[in-house]
Amino acid sequence: MSRGFVKEGDQEETPIIPPRAALPAGATNYVTPNGMKLLHTEREQLEQERTTLATTDEQQRRIELAVLNGKLDLLNERIVSARILEPASQPKDEVRFGATVTYKIAPAPTPQTFQIVGVDEADVAQRKIAFVAPIAVALTGHKVSDEVPFQLGGNAKKLKIVSIAY
């Protein structure tokens, strides 16, 4: 049927599905074992939401299902592409994926600590940053006591690695 014969009120807008955290083109989707568990837990929650939709309005239900199915599709793509890296298998004396790094920004005396994780596991509030974040990229491959140059807010800074743990 031609769209010319459809009432305006009957037209459904395509739902907007929020994108997942950005993963640069061609980058391997590294995850920690805990990150993979979180992805599977998220999938279970979305599948549960899908089966227990309480909406009675059919149009609203179709929209909500389309959003949930879109989220599940994006999530399943991430799970399929995930490559688990065990932090314990990384070199203990070098910053790598899964490391918990403590560093100082000269001249500030207060150290900062964060763990380098996968893009879906990153959460600044929990002091976890993605392995593709600029500071993680700058510190990767360095060792304790190394001073690493880093651009911070347009200013050149030196990051001194205090400790590395896995």
Task: Provide a concise account of the structure shown.
The radius of gyration is 22 Å and the shape is elongated.
Please give a structural write-up.
The structure is a single chain. The chain is α/β, with parallel strands linked by helices. The chain has helices at 33-51, 58-81, 134-139, and strands at 29-31, 82-84, 100-105, 112-117, 128-130, 147-152, 155-165. It has 2 domains: 18-84, Helix Hairpins, CATH 1.10.287; 88-165, Chitinase A, domain 3, CATH 3.10.50. The protein has 3 helices and 7 strands. A hairpin with a 2-residue loop joins β6 and β7. α1 (33-51) runs antiparallel to α2 (58-81). The model has no long low-confidence stretch (mean pLDDT 90).
Along the chain, the helix and strand elements come as: EHHEEEEHEE
| End-to-end gap | 61 Å
**Could you give me the name of the CATH homologous superfamily of the largest domain?**
Transcription elongation factor, GreA/GreB, C-terminal domain
Named CATH topology of the largest domain: Chitinase A, domain 3
Quantity of strands, as a count:
7
Approximately how much beta-strand content do the residues carry?
A: 15-25%
CATH C-level of the largest domain: Alpha Beta
Mean pLDDT, rounded to whole units?
90
Please bin the fraction of helical residues. 25-40%
Task: Output the strand order for the largest sheet.
Answer: 5-4-3-7-6
Q: What is the global morphology?
A: elongated
